UniProtKB/TrEMBL annotation:
Keywords: Membrane, Transmembrane, Transmembrane helix. The chain crosses the membrane at residues 28-48, 104-122, 129-150, 170-189, 201-219, 225-244. Coiled coil: none annotated. It comes from the Bacteria. The keyword Transmembrane applies. It comes from Sphingopyxis panaciterrulae. The keyword Transmembrane applies. This is DUF4386 domain-containing protein.
Length: 284
């Protein structure tokens, strides 16, 4: 109990020291910008790696990889990859495996991007909520890795003509991943709102689409296609914020939020002229 209390006290003192430190540009924006650009470029390449078409899954999924993540039975897998008589089945299976293998690198990139962005926002705003939110993209990447492990097992069993018990566990990491990424976007939007009025519209554009995540998780065959747009909107806003934060830190040598900005100087008041003495009666 004593060790826990002393640890909590040290953490409290550390938070207080961070809150009272002088305003300074944070180099964490450089990391967020670098990870963000890498995430964008590799994400474009990864989308091209996954199969572009399926064998008859619901149009509401949007892409075969989203349909695969929400597969619940053998009929769903046949709608994604096709039966053995389908000449495209082998190419679809190979493309899906290649895409999921590359997805491991994508997990590291987006976790680094969103994590660095939240860390930079915490350095700017000194908010404990933002500091705690740094764990969200890391946890999402871990759920994504768990999901990929299950997908590999399901695909291997399907190739052999068997049913994989991993399909029963698949909904949990899929839902957890998207919920954690949506919460991370909300945290980014919350940080943007604290930056001032000019960031309120970008914050709204970054956070409002996360409503679609709940719709997609509830009815994936109809709204699964919205997941990429809902999460991507927050990432685009964070990438813009990282670019501006990096520019201010590198060029202007100033943070995005300056708690020690000098107050505007007031104009000195000219002393009032002495009142003229009024005389009464006739002038002599």
């Amino acid at each position: 109990m004593t060790d826990a209390a002393s640890g909590g006290s040290r953490l409290q003192h550390w938070f207080d020291a961070q809150r009272l430190r002088p305003a300074a540009p944070t180099r964490a924006w450089y990391g967020a910008l670098a990870f963000g650009i890498a995430t964008l470029l590799f994400g474009i390449r990864l989308v091209a790696t996954f199969p572009a078409t399926g064998a008859g899954f619901a149009d509401g999924y949007g892409t075969p990889v989203i349909a695969f993540e929400f597969a619940r039975g053998q009929a769903d897998l046949l709608a994604i990859f096709g039966p053995e008589s389908d000449p495209m089945q082998v190419s679809r299976l190979a493309a899906m495996r290649a895409g999921n293998e590359g997805d491991y690198l994508f997990m590291l990139l987006y976790a680094g991007f969103v994590g660095c962005g939240l860390f930079a926002l915490w350095r700017e705003l000194r908010s404990r909520v933002l500091f705690a939110a740094i764990a969200l993209p890391v946890a999402a990447a871990l759920c994504d890795a768990w999901e990929n492990t299950l997908l590999f097992d399901i695909q291997t069993a399907f190739t052999l003509g068997d049913y994989s018990p991993a399909m029963a566990s698949l909904p949990w990491p899929v839902a957890a991943k998207f919920i954690l990424l949506a919460l991370a976007n909300i945290a980014v939007g919350h940080g943007m709102m604290q930056l001032g009025r000019r960031w309120q519209l970008p914050a709204a554009l970054a956070t409002a689409p996360v409503i679609a995540v709940a719709m997609a998780l509830a009815v994936p065959p109809a709204f699964g296609w919205t997941l990429g747009a809902a999460i991507g909107a927050g990432w685009i806003g964070l990438l813009l914020l990282a670019a501006i934060g990096s520019w201010r830190a590198l060029v202007r040598k100033r943070p995005l939020v300056d708690f020690e900005a000098p107050l505007p100087r007031r104009r000195a008041r000219t002393p009032d002229a002495p009142p003229t003495r009024r005389s009464f009666g006739r002038k002599r």
